[in-house]
Design a protein that fits this description.
- This is adenylate kinase.
- Belongs to the adenylate kinase family.
- It is an enzyme of class 2 (transferase).
- It comes from Chloropicon primus.
- This protein folds into 3 domains: 275 residues, NAD(P)-binding Rossmann-like Domain (Rossmann fold, 3-Layer(aba) Sandwich), CATH 3.40.50.720; 225 residues, Rossmann fold (3-Layer(aba) Sandwich), CATH 3.40.50; 90 residues.
- The protein is 54% helix and 11% strand.
- The strands form 4 sheets. A 6-stranded parallel β-sheet has the order 2-1-3-4-5-9, with helices on both faces.
């Protein structure tokens, strides 16, 4: 069977094409450019070489018109052929009635922007060989279509989703893959109705949809008046303000792939969306001594990338909230509480979709093994468990084990060790008022040394296990990776552990301000003269802020930029010694045109900004007037138009608006 899809740029038809190929149909993909200005001759070539022709009506208006003309002039060409027109519920946008079905298609009233779409639908339906499949507002398959893309983009990119009005209107939704299933039924001749509707059985209000998408990306929902939506530049969101409850066309034995609707499938749908953007969740692990600034970096990274902040304090606070319930269930083990709470945090949709930052947690190798288990280091324990199970009978894997397996894709992919010199750490801790710096610092050093030793012991055990497997040789990549991990393990056990599991490791010097060690025996006030000398001696602020420097380090830009800045002193010195005066003049002459151009651009930008600000001030009363006076008048005019049913609707509406304008003018003058 040969199926032609026009145009293949239609997202539904793109997904349908992959499905039809899997079913071993012969698929002909027609591109958008081939449909523009289509003639009857070009359409005839398509019809003659296909059994089923599926057309996205909104994307191929000229093709549809040429197709209908051809069918009327040469009906014999269409014998045994089926033409399927794909359209959406915007052509039902203002249809009255609490419930509508495919039987109501003759009384459809579209939203204003869909009048041409309705005309094309009815034109295509006049053909004997045609069927029309009308789908709800699309979601799924990466949101590469108009559907709910506006809301997804706001949630993911801006961190705030706008809800216009109260959001009580019902939006008929459907997953792209369910639309494709309906197309399968038509192509397989299992669905022969002239007009079919495919929408989710689950109803969704705009508020529910907005809140579901926002929650999936950890975004906030802010409300705005419905009138503000009139001034949205993106008119592609008009379909979000429908208020319809259409019923899906009944098909015997048909089961929706996404029967639970948007909310129940949000985890998979949001993952498809981030994958379509080529985005992988960020998973940062920051460690370092007290006062190194890791919390500052952790919270700044969260703010910059919209990530979830996780620390031991956050996990303990969550565990404390659940303490009462768990005590009733007999789970009083503190470690179990923390582990359970940590996994619940890792289940948050925002972590799945965007990622997280771990601030100093786990603090030890032992905690890392519990929170992020690694099979290589736990082989012996596994063998013991298997022996126990074989003697006692097989057991089902625990939910915790399954959770560990499913969360491996969320293991830290960047491990950062933030460090600073001891005097800097000491001064920062004193400035922040943190108590017992010496004790905390000593404890950190001791723990760090233990972690290095423990990780090296783990590596030795791993080598012993590898020796027992005769004939197994490591690849070159494995050897080089192991060498890198060994090197990291010399200075940082936790960093080496995550590096072993594929995480990138960076150490970062955060000596933002060099200071002398504080001597507690020296007291007294410093003179103003001494303060002035200290200020003069201070080094200038670095070009990059600490967070920019860290990001540059992660992206591999630090070494490059520093090399460019420093250059080779042995090569540069002779050049400067040759002709310093001439070189300076040449540099100044070369810089002048660039400076002039930069000044010109800056002036243009300033002018544009000031003009926009002035325009914004001027337009505010106009927007208020349109929203409060003109929009209601136009709405009332359309209602009167429907009631009166005049012969000339345009003239009737014009006269009504003139009268309204005169009455508003009279009111304004009297006031």
């Amino acid at each position: 069977m040969k199926v032609s899809l026009a145009p293949i740029e239609s997202h539904v038809l793109k997904v349908a094409g992959e499905d039809f190929k899997a079913r071993e149909y012969e698929v002909v993909e027609i591109r958008q450019e081939e449909l523009e200005g289509a003639s009857e001759t070009s359409v005839q070539n398509v019809v003659e070489n296909t059994d089923y022709l599926v057309v996205d009506i909104a994307l191929a208006p000229s093709f549809v018109r040429a197709l209908v003309r051809l069918e009327r002039s040469k009906p014999e060409l269409f014998a045994g052929k089926v033409v399927v027109g794909l359209t959406s519920v915007v052509s039902w946008g203002q249809t009255l009635g609490e419930k509508v079905s495919d039987a109501d298609e003759t009384r459809r009233t579209p939203i204003p922007g869909a009048l041409k779409l309705l005309e094309l639908e009815r034109l295509l339906m006049s053909c004997e060989c045609s069927q029309v499949l009308c789908h709800g507002i699309l979601y799924g398959s990466g949101e590469c279509h108009a559907g709910l893309k506006h809301l997804f983009d706001q949630a993911f990119r801006e961190g705030t989703v706008t809800l216009y009005g109260e959001g009580g209107a019902n939006i008929p939704l459907v997953n792209v893959k369910d639309v494709v299933q309906f197309l399968d039924l038509i192509v397989a001749s299992k669905l022969t109705k002239k007009y079919c509707l495919v929408v989710d059985e689950v109803e969704n209000t705009l508020k529910e949809v907005t809140e579901t998408i926002a929650a999936s990306f950890g975004a906030k929902v802010e409300t705005a008046s419905l009138e503000d939506a009139i001034f949205l530049e993106e008119k592609k969101v008009d379909h979000l303000f429908l208020n319809l409850k259409p019923e899906c066309t009944k098909v015997d034995d048909y089961v929706f792939q996404f029967s639970g609707g948007l909310a129940s499938e949000m985890k998979a749908i949001s993952a498809e969306y981030t994958a379509s953007l080529g985005y992988s969740p960020h998973a940062f692990f920051l460690s370092g001594p007290p006062g190194s600034g890791k919390t500052y970096f952790a919270k700044t990274l969260c703010e910059k990338f919209g990530l979830e902040y996780v620390s031991k304090e956050v996990v303990e606070a969550m565990a404390k909230e659940k303490e009462g319930t768990e005590e009733e269930e007999g789970e009083s083990n503190d470690e179990n509480k923390l582990l359970t709470s940590f996994r619940e945090i890792m289940d948050k949709p925002n972590i799945e979709n965007k990622g997280y930052v771990l601030d100093g947690y786990p603090a030890t190798i032992q905690e890392a093994l519990e929170l992020f288990p690694n099979a290589d280091f736990q082989e012996k324990e596994k063998e013991k468990e298997e022996e126990t199970q074989s003697s006692e009978g097989e057991e089902e894997p625990s939910p915790e084990a399954e959770a560990e397996e499913t969360k491996k894709h969320l293991y830290p992919n960047v491990s950062i060790y933030v460090k600073a010199d001891d005097p800097v750490l000491q001064e920062r801790s004193a400035a922040s008022g943190a108590a017992d710096f010496t004790g905390r610092y000593t404890a950190f050093k001791k723990s760090s040394d233990e972690d290095k030793k423990q990780f090296q012991d783990l590596l030795k055990k791993l080598d012993e296990n590898a020796k027992e497997q005769d004939g197994v040789e490591k690849s070159g990549e494995e050897v080089s990776t192991r060498a890198a991990v060994d090197e990291i393990a010399q200075s940082n056990g936790l960093g080496a552990y995550f590096a072993f599991m594929g995480s990138k490791f960076f150490d970062f010097d955060n000596n933002r301000k060099e200071v002398a060690p504080v001597d507690p025996t020296e007291e007294g006030e410093k003179s103003e003269e001494a303060e002035g000398e200290k200020a003069e001696a201070e080094e200038p602020e670095p070009e990059f802020s600490p967070i920019e420097s860290l990001l540059a380090k992660i992206e591999g830009k630090t070494d490059e930029s520093s090399e460019e800045a420093q250059g080779d002193p042995e090569e540069e010195a002779p050049k400067e010694a040759e002709e310093p005066g001439e070189a300076t003049e040449k540099e100044e002459a070369a810089a002048q045109p660039e400076q002039k151009e930069a000044l010109k651009e800056a002036e243009t930008v300033d002018t544009d900004v000031s003009q926009l600000e002035e325009l914004e001030v001027l337009i505010k009363p106009v927007k208020a007037y349109l929203a409060s006076e003109l929009a209601p008048a136009i709405s009332e005019g359309f209602i009167k138009l429907v009631e009166a049913k005049p012969e000339d609707p345009v003239q009737f509406l014009g006269e009504f608006l003139v009268k309204q304008s005169e009455s508003m003018t009279a009111e304004l003058s009297s006031s």
